[in-house]
Amino acid sequence: MKKLIFWSLLILLDLVALEAAFRGYFYLTDGKSYAAEDLADIPSATMLTTQNERPKWMKNYLLHPYFGYVAPKIENNEQSHGFSSKSDPLVAEPAAFSILLTGGSVAQQIGRFGNLETRFRAALKTAGHTNRKVKVFNAATGGYKQPQQLQVLSYFLALSGRFDLVINLDGFNEIVLPALNFQRSGQHPAFPRQWSNVVGEVSLDRRLLDGEITYLRQEQAKWITIAKEPVIGWSAIAGHFLRNQILEDEERIQELFETSFEIASGYSLEAKGPPIAFETDTQLYDYSADLWVRSSITMHRLARSFGIDYVHILQPNQYVEGSKPWSRKEQERFRSAAAIYAPYATVGYPALINRQTDITAAGVPFGDATTLFQSEKRTVYRDACCHLNKLGIATLADYVVQQSIGHLSKDENARQ
């Protein structure tokens, strides 16, 4: 019994001495006494992630294998393939005059708030074309640019979609976003908006790295929780071994971060598209304009091969010089030279305007809406990008209808 007490006391004294030694070690290395709470400060304070930051505009969007992305979260519209319409374009309505609307967010606005079905029905009836019900499928989506509209048309035609008219209202995204994305990340002009950022989230290599980092973060959290337990939390001995484990995990995490960033900064076909270079900005804008022209001509030929009318309209924009007498509100708030898109639209739009003759020369019905507001002194824009207020939407919607009616095939009545 005496031996047991002796050895117990000896072990206890050794532990006390060892505890004191470790506490002295902590004080010498950290400059303060040991506290279990300090272990929580070891993991990176920012809790970095290997993934690129998802663009804010993507929060309501989901990836799509052919279009890049769609927006089913906006209106719970899975039945419309993720687009803004309430219906499925593949559900035929033989008695209806069916219209497919494509483009970016301005076209999407017109489709959602421009009362196109009512305007078209009245205009068709007045023009003596048809008295049928009008159905507009709004496939225009914020950020879409060619060749996404072309992909949308070919996809729905391949799935037996039936349309009488295709309206493509675009231009701003086609000339602004390619330049912006290329200059920032080297992304190919034909790839979807900020694709290099979006794909960073689904890259297999980066997901594997992110998975390992997540696991190690969980391990660190476990060690920190253990360190706060009674008795263990008091002991600098336990704290020493727990800290070493946390530090070991942290060192590995930082290695994984570096590897992830190397992947993100390097070339990736899935994220940035085929490598391409431009010696001047002019070449970049010309390339984007060429892509816009070819995509529209291809949409027209594809539509006509199915007996569908096609109309292409270049959307208006406040950075087109001389396009409108600016209201005070527009001049002060919506035409800022500091706006992120301003320099790209100012330099790029002339490239589109100059190329419209190539589109019409190919037999494509085309309308230039950049001059639509030349006599409108009231405010029609609502932000420093490209979007319109109620007056602007109504005016552009009327223009879209007029241009479309004017270009309908003479055999429209035969298609009733």
Automatic annotation (TrEMBL):
This is SGNH/GDSL hydrolase family protein.
